[in-house]
Write a structure and sequence with these properties.
Number of strands: 10
Radius of gyration: 27 Å
Helix content: 40-55%
Structural class: alpha/beta
Distance between the termini: 87 Å
Shape: globular
Largest sheet: 8 strands, mixed
CATH topology of the largest domain: Rossmann fold
CATH superfamily of the largest domain: Alpha/Beta hydrolase fold, catalytic domain
Strand content: 5-15%
CATH class of the largest domain: Alpha Beta
Number of helices: 25
CATH architecture of the largest domain: 3-Layer(aba) Sandwich
């Protein structure tokens, strides 16, 4: 009888790591289990994410991954992309997928997907024969369907429900099921078994197989094209870890959502969801920026800003994003690209409700009172302009302030106060895109949207919400438009809009309580363990934020937010009608079906601004048509007259 064949070292190492992760997760999960608090009947209860009992450890690994991507992979990837051109990088990715065909074949069969196994087999032979061993993805050109499958999915199909979220070094989010699945996937990869010489257990060199080098090289090649967006994405959020942890639950659920639309649709919120598709057209544009910082004297801290400077003298457009948005978010970058291509220099700054601005430039612990928020913003813009003027003497022409959503509201507020603040930067143009008129009306809408699922019967609510998130996960994994129009009914689309803003509010509350803990939140405000803290914070609406957090805070400063005159001055543009109507520097672009505007608000805008100052599009929701050519042309028209005459520009 022949002796048993030794386990290959690559598989053995992965198996030990995977089993250790699984055992540790199960043990820790059992030891840390606590009774769950009761939930009120008439309150939207979000579907539970995969439990995260080892959150402090996971966050340490997450911090390492952030450092690795930001400090190591991103800088070298830029050089790598310059040397290894895009077709070659794509070819390596194609080959890597083609060579791992056996794993997809096995898992499609184990999951009972005979059609998927046949599709992957057809693709393998076509790409191997006609695509040069898989370097050219001929099968996709011929529109042959894919059927991705791995052991983690197979274990899920067999009934293994993940019990512990795991953040893996380099590879990122996972769970104990997928960690074991990753071990099996390694065993199913043919390259794992390619060794240049016979395996000798006592020879450490045999652990360094071609797979060791190839796997690392293939991973790096795949990351080289996505690392820039990854780094920007995690910088743009207060806590990208929490967002990723929740999303991963549905990305790896291995369940097919029901795309049937069971109720009426709401056009305004469906169009609003399209704002997620507003991105830069040239993926290299963000890399051509520069980032500097200015000292904010009132706080003693430095605030970062990102800019693109024209090589010759040009007007400068300062871009203020919407509520909670960061300067490196997709929308401000897309607007910066738009104006830069038209000959303007562009500068992006984070919104006063964003964690970066709150922690570095806000004189108040929490944003809520527009006179203070707008003044802090105006001061920061002034310091940035002085810094740029010192670096680029003689290259800054007219200055324009362009804001969207709440950033537009704040920009218009600056327009009303700038004439009396001559020590601060004076703008030559103000452009407000999709501005609300009354903040309280707008936040009331957002609070109502988040509660939209209460229209469903209580016994169906959790299932319907899970299906909604599964739809979002499926859309995120597919190419834009591949699944047709957004497959959401009115309840779903309203909830998704409300959910997006509620997550922004969560970060605002967390940042404010880190700075000044008012004792309202029962859970300890810790950086290392936030799951239960976030669950509690998410129960607070925008109305709760203003009533329970902001109002007592500003009362201690001598400002009564409930006083009618204070409330109107801080949150209603109509209180500043005279100043706004008298300014010819202002341009406004809005959508007629923007849910942040009531019909009365829209009428007020038409009465306040001249037709040459106001552009109203019939549809688009809130920022949903920002990427359309018509809206972008309107944005450029709104900046007309700022550029000095040039024989090269007509």
């Amino acid at each position: 009888m022949s002796p048993p064949r030794p386990v290959h070292p690559a598989v053995r190492r992965s198996l030990v790591i995977g089993l250790a992760v699984a055992c540790f997760c199960f043990a820790y999960s059992a030891a840390s289990a606590e009774p769950k608090p009761s939930v009120a009947a008439e309150r939207v209860e979000l579907p539970k994410a995969v439990p995260d009992p080892i959150e402090p450890l996971n966050r340490v690994v997450w911090g390492f991954n952030r450092w690795l991507m930001s400090a190591m992979i991103k800088p070298t990837a830029r050089l790598y992309r310059a040397i290894v051109r895009k077709p070659v990088r794509t070819g390596i990715n194609n080959f890597n997928r083609n060579i791992t065909y056996p794993g997809r074949l096995i898992n499609n069969l184990l999951q009972g997907k005979c059609k998927g196994a046949r599709n992957e087999t057809d693709r393998f032979f076509v790409n191997t024969i006609a695509g040069g061993a898989g370097f050219v993805d001929v099968a996709s050109r011929w529109k042959m369907p894919k059927s991705d499958a791995d052991f983690g999915q197979t274990f899920g199909k067999w009934g293994w429900k993940p019990g512990c979220y795991v953040m893996l070094p380099v590879f990122g989010p996972s769970n104990e099921r997928d960690a074991i699945g990753f071990v099996a996937d390694t065993g199913a990869n043919p390259i794992t078994y390619l060794t240049p010489y016979p395996f000798t257990p006592n020879d450490p060199l045999t652990y360094l197989t071609p797979y060791t080098y190839y796997s690392a090289a293939a991973t790096y090649n795949g990351l080289s094209d996505t690392v820039d967006g990854y780094v920007r994405g995690i910088a743009a959020e207060k806590d990208a870890y929490a967002t990723l942890q929740y999303a991963w639950t549905f990305v790896r659920a291995n369940r097919t959502p029901d795309f049937q639309i069971k109720g009426e649709q709401d056009r305004a919120t469906l169009e609003t969801l399209q704002s997620a598709l507003v991105k830069v057209k040239n993926p290299e544009f963000p890399n051509r920026s520069a980032t500097r910082s200015v000292l904010i004297r009132a706080t003693g801290r430095k605030l970062d800003f990102t800019y693109w400077m024209q090589r010759k003298k040009a007007p400068v457009v300062y871009i203020v994003p919407g509520i909670g948005s960061h300067r490196l978010a997709d929308t401000p970058l897309a607007l910066a690209e738009l104006v830069f291509q038209q000959g303007f220099s562009a500068v992006c700054i984070s919104n006063p409700y964003n964690y970066e601005f709150m922690e570095r430039a806000s004189t108040a612990a929490m944003p809520a009172y527009t006179p203070i928020d707008a003044h802090d913003l105006h001061v920061a813009l002034t310091e940035i302009d002085r810094r740029l003027g010192a670096f680029y003497r003689g290259r800054l022409e007219a200055r324009a302030l362009m804001g969207y959503s709440v950033g537009a509201f704040e920009s218009l507020f600056i327009a009303t106060t700038a004439p009396t603040n001559q020590a601060l930067l004076q703008f030559d143009r103000y452009l407000a895109i999709d501005t609300p008129v009354r903040l309280l009306y707008g936040i009331g809408k957002l609070d109502a949207f988040y509660q939209a699922p209460l229209a469903w019967p209580q016994e169906q609510r959790t299932t319907n919400l899970e299906n909604t998130f599964l739809k979002v996960a499926a859309l995120a994994k597919s190419a834009p438009g591949a699944l047709g129009p957004p497959p959401f009914d009115a309840v779903e689309s309203k909830f998704l809009v409300g959910m997006a803003f509620r997550l922004i509010l969560r970060d605002v509350i967390f940042s404010s309580q880190q700075r000044t803990n008012q004792g309202i939140i029962k859970q300890p405000v810790k950086k290392s363990r936030r799951a239960r803290l976030y669950e509690e914070i998410l129960q607070y609406s925008f109305a709760d934020y203003f009533e329970k957090f902001a109002t007592p805070y500003y009362r201690d400063l001598g400002i009564d937010l409930n006083a009618p005159d204070v409330l109107a001055n801080a949150g209603d543009l109509r209180a500043h009608a005279a100043s706004l109507k008298g300014s010819r520097k202002i341009r406004v672009i809005v959508n007629g079906n923007d849910f942040l505007l009531s019909p009365e608000d829209l009428d007020w805008l038409r009465q306040t601004f001249e037709p040459a100052q106001l552009t109203v599009f019939e549809h688009g929701g809130h920022l949903g048509n920002l990427g359309s050519p018509e809206v972008q042309k309107a944005i450029i028209r709104a900046l007309d007259g700022l550029r000095a005459p040039s024989p090269m520009r007509r």
